[in-house]
Write a structure and sequence with these properties.
With 130 residues, this protein is mainly β. The strands form two sheets. The protein has a six-stranded antiparallel β-sheet with strand order 6-7-2-1-8-11. A five-stranded antiparallel β-sheet has the order 5-3-4-10-9, with no helix packed on it.
Length: 130
Amino acid sequence: MESSLINHWEEFPGGQARPPGERLYVSLNTRFVLMFNQTTFEKIGCPERAVLLYDRRNSMIGVRAAPSEAKNTFPVTVTAKTHRSISITSFCRHYAIRIDRAVAFQDPEVLEDGTLRLDLRTTTYVGRKA
């Protein structure tokens, strides 16, 4: 039995989501607060302060743990029992990073040197438009 329909299948680029306790989760809201879950916080070393990095060519944000006495650091704040945040307004203004809705980073990754890499080109909307 032949079908006259032509299928244009597209393979889903994901897979089954990891369990919440294993998944790195990072979001950025319209007030430029970077929020991350406990798993992500632990993977970057549970810092009290962090240095922010930016790769202009690839539109990537880097977050790296820093000692409290280091220059150019941002405080990491406890926002909920299992979430941490960093207010990065001045960073976003400096690099002209603009969003009109809260976004989640699709593939946050902790590099070998402990830097959390966040790709602004691969985000998903998670909130309503401002």
